[in-house]
Specification:
The protein is α/β, with parallel strands linked by helices. The chain is built from 8 helices and 7 strands; from the N terminus they run βαβααβααβββααβα. It has a single domain, classed as Flavodoxin domain (Rossmann fold, 3-Layer(aba) Sandwich). The chain has helices at residues 15-27, 51-55, 65-75, 92-100, 102-105, 132-137, 140-155, 176-195, and strands spanning 2-7, 32-37, 78-84, 106-107, 114-115, 121-127, 158-165. Helix 1 (15-27) crosses helix 8. The longest helix is centred in the last third of the chain and has 20 residues, at 176-195. The structure holds flavin mononucleotide. Flavin mononucleotide binds next to helix 1.
Length: 196
């Protein structure tokens, strides 16, 4: 079974990268894991031509790494999407990659869209500098999780759970509570794939 990890953080020593590395460690027994640093990918942003909606299989722009990631999404059993919270949302690079993969996720059928990645499972990861209480009040990581979830929902991908780290200015290190939470969530993800 394959697990694809999309790391939307540009910081190799940041919290999101650390959480995703821990997720990768946990999944390695059961899955063939591939972690992709979205910031290192070479791809153009979506130009809104809607050509993908005529083609219905993938983006029709000149091939770059956006289509390659789309194919990897298709081939994976589980997808882990991680992003820092940037102004209550995912990072621009990650959003750009997902926009380029609209047709990977769903077909524009009427009256409702048809999900293309049904049966796959996901975990969402995010981090923000704001401490817990204020993060909650200002809906910061909530905004990030909600938007990533929306993309996955269009694809028919079930989100098994999310991992959030707040107050990252103090430290980007993962405490034992968070490490245990990651382990529990990875177990849940494995079980959900086994059941399906
Ligand atoms: C452009 C930009 C926007 C940001 N917006 C927010 C925000 O809305 N709320 C917040 O708490 N932190 C915000 N941050 C801080 C990051 O979320 C924080 O540094 C987080 O730890 C980054 O994740 P990383 O450690 O994995 O890189 C922002 C940082 C950048 C660069």
């Amino acid at each position: 079974m394959k697990a694809l990890i999309l790391n939307g953080s540009p910081r190799p020593k940041g919290s999101v990268t650390k959480i995703l590395s821990e997720v990768s460690k946990n999944l390695k027994n059961k899955f063939e894991v591939e972690m992709v640093d979205v910031y290192k990918l070479d791809f153009k942003p979506c130009i809104g031509c809607r050509g993908c909606r005529k083609n219905e299989t993938e983006c029709i722009m000149k091939e770059d790494e956006a289509q390659i990631i789309g194919r990897k999404m298709n081939e994976s059993d589980v997808i882990i999407v991680g992003s820092p919270t940037h102004f209550n949302n995912m990072s621009a690079q990650l959003k750009s990659l997902l926009d380029r993969n609209g047709t990977t996720l769903f077909q524009e059928t009427k009256p409702l869209p048809t999900p293309n990645l049904k049966g796959k499972k996901a975990i969402i990861v995010t981090a923000c500098v704001t401490p817990l209480f204020f993060n909650f009040l200002l809906g910061m990581t909530r905004g990030t999780i909600k938007t990533i979830k929306l993309y996955l929902k269009y694809g028919g991908i079930k989100v098994v759970g999310s991992i959030i780290k707040t107050g990252t200015e103090k430290s980007t290190d993962l405490d034992s509570g968070l490490i245990k939470k990651i382990e529990r969530l990875c177990n849940r993800l494995e079980k959900s794939v086994a059941i399906a």
